[in-house]
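SEVERITY: medium
COMPONENT: batch folding queue
REPORTER: lab tech (J.R.)

DESCRIPTION
The queue accepted two submissions in a row. Attaching both inputs and their returned structure tokens so the on-call engineer can compare them side by side.

ATTACHMENT 1
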Amino acid sequence: MTLQEAMKARHMVRKYTDKAIPADIAAKLNERVTQNNEQYGLSIKLMINDGSAVPGVIKLILAKGVNNFFIMAGPKGADERLGYCGADLMLYAQTLGLNTWWVGGTYNRKGAAEKSGGATPVGIIAVGYGQTQGVPHKTKTADAVSSYAGDVPDWFKEGVDAALLAPTALAKQAFIMKGEGSTVHIDCDNGIFSGVDTGLVKYHFELGAGKENFEWV
């Protein structure tokens, strides 16, 4: 499965089986984590067989079997980079046959900070074998989140379609993408989640549009 295929197949999954992540798969995930940390100056960490991420009441109501997760942490102000790398990790995990869930609010923030060595967490990503494959989230139309000056090129259309597949906090999709020539600008206004959402959406847009076809401005 390619990342592009994973982007279309990945949906939020909150409930997981007790099937363990094999050592070879965990090693691949850790390698991807290391690549992201080194390239973007982050402190992301993968926790395996650790059920401390999600508070008990949330487990009872929403989640089940969340025993593996990425701690999405880095220096203060790294929200966009963490969103971007989080998108990469979720889609990469999907290519390995795993399911994911980005948790931006209902997680053990203090514990996540301690386990990441004191870095600032912006969320966790549950990862494992889902009880289901999830369902597509409700989505806005391309016209509602984008505009282009002139005839719209295919790469821009494909980028916007991919951006609409990105997970965003509270599923608000509170972003606007504007294209002109070979440049694209993104505005995102989702409160404290704006930075993370921007990174998540940018990664998806690049995957759909092809980074070689445009530049961010």
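ATTACHMENT 2
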Amino acid sequence: MASLWPTFLVLALSASSLVNADDTPTVYEVLQEYDFPIGLLPAGVTSYEFDNSTGKFTVYLNGTCSFKIDSYELKYKSTVKGVLAKDKLSKLSGIQVKVLFLWLSIVKVTRDEDELEFSVGIASANFPVSNFDECPTCGCGFDCEDVDVRKGRLSRRFSSS
């Protein structure tokens, strides 16, 4: 009987850690808590770190990720960092947009009601929040076959291209 106790304890601790893991929100849910749509990040985030007290975050992808949305070409590095606050993403690093022939870093995203403003420092552009209701997929953006991927439902199972 005494030899079963350590085995039971290990199983109980394992089950406990599984429950806690399920209670941890996804990075997409964290974005929504701060009034941002899930589509600011592509599907395929493998993990993230977030400090509630400072708002600092780091998001990890399987690798670099690029895709086109309309006339814009976007590129995400395998690590994206920044500071998250209600209606404001600042000090961003790891996300670039191609404008003409130049790759410019997106450094800030702010939300004003139903609009998102993306800033590259010297210039900015506004887009409706509804454009980001779904997650783009690395390699194909929104022109993918699997809708569940874009809605962030299976995001941890897919790899970046």
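NOTES FROM REPORTER
The chain has three helices and nine strands.
No errors were logged for either attachment.
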